[in-house]
TrEMBL record:
<keyword id="KW-0498">Mitosis</keyword>
<dbReference type="InterPro" id="IPR024789">
    <property type="entry name" value="APC4"/>
</dbReference>
<dbReference type="GO" id="GO:0031145">
    <property type="term" value="P:anaphase-promoting complex-dependent catabolic process"/>
</dbReference>
<dbReference type="InterPro" id="IPR056358">
    <property type="entry name" value="APC4_C"/>
</dbReference>
<keyword id="KW-0132">Cell division</keyword>
<feature type="domain" description="Anaphase-promoting complex subunit 4 C-terminal half WD40">
    <location>
        <begin position="136"/>
        <end position="234"/>
    </location>
</feature>
<dbReference type="GO" id="GO:0051301">
    <property type="term" value="P:cell division"/>
</dbReference>
<keyword id="KW-0131">Cell cycle</keyword>
<dbReference type="GO" id="GO:0005680">
    <property type="term" value="C:anaphase-promoting complex"/>
</dbReference>
<dbReference type="Pfam" id="PF23405">
    <property type="entry name" value="WD40_APC4_C-half"/>
</dbReference>
<keyword id="KW-0833">Ubl conjugation pathway</keyword>
<dbReference type="GO" id="GO:0070979">
    <property type="term" value="P:protein K11-linked ubiquitination"/>
</dbReference>
<dbReference type="GO" id="GO:0034399">
    <property type="term" value="C:nuclear periphery"/>
</dbReference>
<protein>
    <submittedName>
        <fullName>APC4 protein</fullName>
    </submittedName>
</protein>
């Protein structure tokens, strides 16, 4: 190393790495790492020491490509700016891209029907979760949209099926109905109605014609029976 090199390094250390005991207890940096820290500053000013892009394979590739050089698909490069500046630029572009679809989709959505499922007392401190298991299914063959759900509290043994036509101007019969499981698995009519009562743990559409449900025995005892049932929509 020459004396000039040593002097340059010494001057750099003196300028940027001075001891500052009064800053030791403060969060953040005690000194300035010039070439790294400049990229992290949340400022719009140009970098103090911009990177040297000479010989960079990507820039050379773009320079030699007629089609990519001015392509709107490539995010512009700002060699003089910090990462915070580039991040803000990118967020602005993304927000602009998403704004138009959000406006169009938002204006196209409207309420087709309103049905009251339950009422709760206004005096209750917290609203109980009465709506559970919403599962959506779209029957593309018949252009029907289904929602499966259960209501807690007094109706855990039944599952509700809401059916709507995908064309909101058309209606379908039995728009909403409930399937009561209760004691339908009893072996004989002599069994007590309370002896084998079932509630629904989960429910999904298996295909356009069939619903799969997972049932459990409602009695409070060990070894509750679980049943996997396939129910035809018809």
């Amino acid at each position: 190393m020459t004396q000039k090199d040593i002097t340059f390094v010494a001057d750099f250390l003196t300028e940027h790495f001075n001891e500052a005991p009064e800053l030791y207890n403060r969060k953040g940096k005690y000194f300035n790492v010039e070439r790294v820290g400049q990229y992290l500053k949340d400022e719009d000013d140009d970098l103090v020491s911009p990177p040297n892009t000479e010989g960079n394979q990507w820039f050379n590739f773009l320079k030699d490509s007629t089609h990519l050089k001015e392509s709107p698909l490539l995010f512009p490069y700002y060699p003089e700016k910090s990462l915070h500046f580039v991040k803000r630029q990118m967020e602005g572009v993304i927000d602009q891209c998403l704004q138009k679809p959000a406006d169009v989709i938002g204006k196209s959505v409207h309420q087709a029907v309103c049905m009251s499922l339950y009422k709760i007392s206004q005096s209750e401190d917290s609203t109980p979760q009465l709506f559970k298991l919403p599962f959506l299914w779209n029957d593309k063959t018949s252009n029907l949209h289904y929602v499966l759900f259960t209501m807690l509290e007094n109706s855990i043994s039944r599952i509700h099926i809401l059916r709507r036509h995908t064309d909101t101007s058309r209606s379908v019969s039995n728009g909403i109905l409930a399937v009561e499981f209760g004691n339908f698995l009893n072996n004989s009519i002599n069994e007590s109605s309370d002896s084998r009562c079932y509630s629904c743990l989960d429910a999904h559409f298996y295909d356009d014609e069939t619903v799969t449900v997972v049932l459990k025995e409602s009695v409070q005892q060990e070894g509750k029976e679980r049943v996997l049932a396939q129910l035809p929509l018809s």
